[in-house]
Amino acid sequence: MKTAAILASLIATATAFVPSxxxxxSTALKAFEDELGAQPPLGFFDPLGLVSDGNEEKFNRxxxxxxxxxxxxMLAVVGYLVAEAGIRLPGNIDYSGLAFADVxxxxxxLNTISGAGVCQILAFIGFLELGIMKDITGxxxxxxxxxxxFDLGWDTFDEETKLKKRAIxxxxxxxxxxxxxxxxxxxxxxxxxxxxxxxx
Length: 200
Known about the structure:
The protein is mainly alpha-helical. It is built from six helices and no strands. Helices cover about 50% and strands about 0% of the residues. α3 crosses α6 (about 160-190).
């Protein structure tokens, strides 16, 4: 009995070293291995297999969403750090006399600002989402929101520089998404990630 169990485990271990057949979706995945964002050390990273069917339309939609969330996250990280540094707008946030300086950082701000104030913030975000942050003219690449009105010299760059800048934006957005997630989690835990600045 003992010998049979040992023999079975040796056979099972040996099968781990037998080459497996290549998955049929590997050809579909290779369609995206040279896309922007497939960079070392991970290369093309799709652990959930969202584009394992090779659907380019689905890939472009996911890239569009990734860029948009990355841009929002970059703004969120900067906003969180500015507020954490104590920099506030002057004056009051509402007619009841609540000053911007009295609004705490992070999630606690949602309990301090009135319901009407939170609704105004959500309405502004909805306006940006539906009216501004969308590709109206079918730009130069997925996530190009210039829409013929906002350029800042993009057209003066050569193709290699444009590709490099887009890769930088994509990576910074990915880092910002992880960064704002960490800041929000630690805010909920009550443990700041930002070191205290000793007073002079």
